Amino acid sequence: MDTIHYEAAGAGTTSGFIVILLGGLVITGALVWAVRLGIKVRGREHAHPRPGERHPRLPEDGPVRETREYREPDEMPQATDASERLTPHELRHSGGRRRADQAPPRWDEGSSGSFGSGGTGGR
User: Fold this and answer.
1) Residue 75's Cα: distance from chain center in Å?
2) What is the pLDDT of residues 8-61, one digit of tens each?
3) What is the pTM of this model?
4) Which CA distances in Å does 101 have to 69, 70, 97, 105?
5) CA angle 26, 28, 30 (to 5 degrees)
6) Is there a contact between 110 and 118 (Cβ–Cβ < 8 Å)?
7) Element housing 96 (H / E)
8) What is the DSSP code string of 55-95?
């Protein structure tokens, strides 16, 4: 009776190995097919421009520069009646507007800057 169990266990291991081997071959075949498909698709794409052909160029007046401006919040318009709702076309297009004074904000003497309560800083 022990011999039958050993033979069954050996047969199960062999069939499991065959299933794993076939699964690996299927996955390998799928990967090879995907790579060949990618090569074929890439071959149909337009060629990259050569050094003398249509590359992007700088504008004649030089590179485009960053624009900095100071903004201030644009308050939400208030409805005239409490039961009235504002519709999207009654709202402004931006959350802020350009500040009239474009001088950068300065540190005020006696304030703490960005941290703390604005006290003297003593213990």
Assistant:
1) 31
2) 666 666 777 788 889 999 999 999 999 999 999 999 998 887 777 777 778 888
3) 0.35
4) 10, 8, 12, 10
5) 70
6) yes
7) strand 96-98
8) -----TT-SPPP----EEE-PPPPPSSTT----GGGS-SSS
